[in-house]
Design goal:
Layout (H helix, E strand, L loop, with lengths): L12 H20 L1 H4 L5 H20 L2 H23 L7 H25 L3 H25 L7 H6 L15 H11 L12 H13 L3 H14 L2 H9 L1 H21 L10 H14 L1 H7 L15 E4 L3 E4 L7 H9 L1 H20 L1 H13 L11 H20 L5 H14 L1
Helix pairs in contact: 1-3, 1-6, 3-4, 3-5, 4-5, 5-18, 6-9, 8-9, 8-10, 8-17, 10-17, 11-12, 12-16, 15-16, 16-17, 16-18, 17-18
Length: 421
């Protein structure tokens, strides 16, 4: 695969840039404002449509119009078959169709989007569009938190997510924790914009994430980015990339070990903050029971009610079927031990991606480890961004193994040339 790409045949450079900006803005708006998009069409389907448009545009740019036409034809046929199967699936449990579409369409589609994005000559345009929309959402989040009022008129949803008088910004997202994770995950992409002043967008995005009340993802983003700003740490990881990979495995392994021998399946605490902190430890303590009862998982259907229960001091008995705030636990429920392995692989790829591309690797790391606090693929806005970051990380590792210069070296050269000019 080429590392330098040309504009699509017959498309002026300015027109191609406008098209990339439109696609990037559409994707970012669908990710960050699904509540608005959902008033027009189901956001899940819009995400698929926008991702598919991205693939066709980039294949035409990186290969040829003929190849793009072939990809469009075969891909459209595949989408049609999967959608048809989903529609005629078991009617007694709609989650079969929902999860089937996520697994068979959204996952491979956005892995491909990430791979194509990494190789695109317009990746800085896509990044600028994404960061700009995220900055808008973050600014609105700060306003929501300061005024304790929904800026989009979503008063019921806004009130539903407040905790003990603390205003938690929601803006146009599906859920406050999802919103905070999205903003935290976009912060590493600021590097890709090639803007001269990159600190301000990062501060705005982190402020928006903090305004959502999402402590876990925000702390992960701050820690990861802070480490990335320490030259000795970066140099050490670049010299010994296995350190980052094994560190990610050790973190996941530590969570699993604590789930089996330290944490107990109960939630102590009589305040919302205490409950939120203890809830994750409680659901992780259910992992032994989950894996023992379903070592191969329960499949794509709904989590059964009344099976995995969690007593709490504040809210009484909580049912895991009502909410699973952990990607690791959700994967274990769905696929059993294979789900645990999938999360470890995602963490390993994210760490390896960081060694090859600090931009996309950091994005993947922030979102992947936020999966310790939120079920990533259960949300139609957050899941695709996670897949995109992992797909870009895979391509970054592939290019590095083929002997190409690291992705961030290219960005540094562009920035240096601009300063020299």
């Amino acid at each position: 695969m080429r590392t330098s790409v040309r504009p699509a045949q017959g498309v002026p450079a300015s027109g191609a840039a406008v098209l990339s900006g439109f696609v990037g803005t559409s994707m970012a708006f669908t990710v960050l404002f699904p509540a608005i998009v959902g008033t027009v069409a189901p956001s899940r389907l819009v995400m698929i449509a926008v991702g598919w448009l991205f693939v066709v545009v980039e294949v035409a740019r990186q290969a040829s119009h003929r190849t793009a036409g072939l990809v469009f034809g075969l891909g459209s046929a595949y989408l049609g078959v999967v959608m048809s199967i989903a529609l005629v699936g078991p009617n007694d449990d709609p989650m079969y169709a929902v999860n089937g579409v996520r697994l068979a369409i959204t996952l491979p589609l956005y892995l491909l989007v990430g791979a194509l994005l990494f190789n695109s000559s317009h990746r800085h345009i896509y990044a600028r569009a994404f960061v700009a929309v995220a900055m808008l959402a973050a600014a609105l989040a700060v306003v929501e938190a300061a005024t304790a009022t929904s800026v989009l008129g979503r008063d019921y949803d806004f009130a539903r997510f407040q905790r003990e008088g603390q205003a938690r910004a929601l803006v146009g997202s599906e859920q406050v924790l999802v919103f905070g994770t999205l903003l935290a995950g976009v912060v590493p992409l600021v590097r890709e914009t090639r803007w001269r002043l990159a600190v301000l967008p990062s501060v705005i995005l982190l402020a928006g994430s903090i305004s959502s009340g999402s402590r876990g993802p925000t702390i992960i983003a701050i820690l990861v980015i802070a480490l990335d700003l320490v030259p000795p740490v970066v140099a050490l990881i670049q010299r010994r990339p296995s350190l980052a990979k094994w560190a990610s495995v050790v973190i996941v392994g530590g969570v699993l070990l604590a789930s089996f021998v330290v944490w107990t399946p109960e939630v102590r605490g009589l305040t919302g903050a205490a409950y939120s902190s203890a809830y994750r430890a409680g659901i992780y303590a259910l992992l032994p029971d989950i894996l023992n009862a379903a070592p191969f998982g329960i499949g794509l259907g709904s989590i059964p009610y009344g099976v995995w229960l969690l007593p709490s001091e504040l809210f009484g008995v909580r049912d895991l079927a009502a909410t699973v705030d952990s990607e690791l636990v959700y994967l274990a429920i769905t696929f059993g031990w294979a789900g645990i392995a999938l999360f470890v692989i995602a963490a390993w790829i994210s760490a390896a991606g960081y060694c090859a591309s600090r931009t996309f690797g950091l994005c993947a790391l922030v979102i992947t480890f936020s999966g310790l606090f939120v079920a990533l693929h259960a949300w139609d806005s957050l899941g695709p961004l996670w897949y995109l970051a992992v797909g870009a990380s895979v391509m970054a590792v592939r290019q590095k193994r083929r002997g190409h210069a690291p992705h961030d070296v290219h960005i540094s050269r562009v920035t240096a040339n601009r300063k020299a000019a």
